[in-house]
Amino acid sequence: MLKLSRLRALSIGAAVAIAASATATLAQDVLKFGHVYEASTPYHAAALRAAELLEEATGGRYKMEVFPASQLGKEAALNEALSLGTVDVIYTGVAFLGQSYGPISISDYPFTMRSYEHWKAYVNSDLFDEMSEAYNKVSGNTVAAMTYYGARHVTANKPILSPKDMEGLKIRTPNAPAYQMFPRATGANPTPMAFAEVYLALQQGVVDAQENPLPTIQFKKFYEVQSNINLTGHITNSLATVVSPVTMNKMGEDGAALLEALATVATQTSDEIVASEGELADWFRDQGVTVNEVDRKPFMEAVAPHLTGEDVPWDAAIFERLQAIQE
């Protein structure tokens, strides 16, 4: 009898242990990271690395699944889903942050950043911390990290060596004031268009030109349908990694592990992007594309009057603080 009772007790104990283990497995929280970039990009690779770091740091309590290439919606839809908590983490452009808090979009405007080193100093500055906090107060969302997206350059079927060469040029831009300032200031015609449509529009002559960083020009193959890459470096672009307030609330202390994982991979990826920019000019030349070095000063002078005054979403004090940041 005793033996049978003991066996029964052991069986019950084993069953409870198995059930507890199954419950623990089911209790693992799965976060969703959505973005619009292809799976072949370094941004997607970074998100996957962040997922690994998060799972490791939380002892498996949290897992993060990454959905590239607009699988969870385009950028506007992802920003909306973030506020609702149906997506936990997204990449988004600074212009989207600016829709909630205008001044934070300053880094997406032409020639507000002098270099990658200036950009790096800015994202680690008190100024950026203050603007991120202000954005958080308005939107509820947390800016976990900024990733360097690259310096934007103009591609066309002719050299663009001075502002005069921009006159009358029909150039595709994103549909945001930050991206339209440079072409307007130099006499071109900014033409907003969905990113997915750009290659065909260039190929068919619907637009004459486009502007993007060198890594983007490479992976979107714009060099196949444009003969000249002109190194205007007019915008120093960023990708913000943003976390939903719903996610931060539910994660409690584990939220710090998520923010740290996202910040770590952003730093790594930024360094990778700037290194690739240093190599890509020669790579494009090897493909038979003309890569033109450009004197940026006349372009900067054309844009300068537009960076102060009432038409920009920041005040003079913020602009002056940004320019005072040393590389």
TrEMBL record:
One of its GO terms (biological process) is transmembrane transport. It is found in: Cell envelope. CDD domains: PBP2_TRAP_Siap (cd13672). GO terms for cellular component: outer membrane-bounded periplasmic space. Pfam families: DctP. Residues 1-27 form the signal peptide. Its main location: other. Keywords: Signal, Transport. InterPro entries: DctP_fam (IPR018389), TRAP_DctP (IPR004682), TRAP_DctP_sf (IPR038404). Belongs to the bacterial solute-binding protein 7 family. This is TRAP dicarboxylate transporter subunit DctP. It comes from Nitratireductor aquibiodomus RA22.
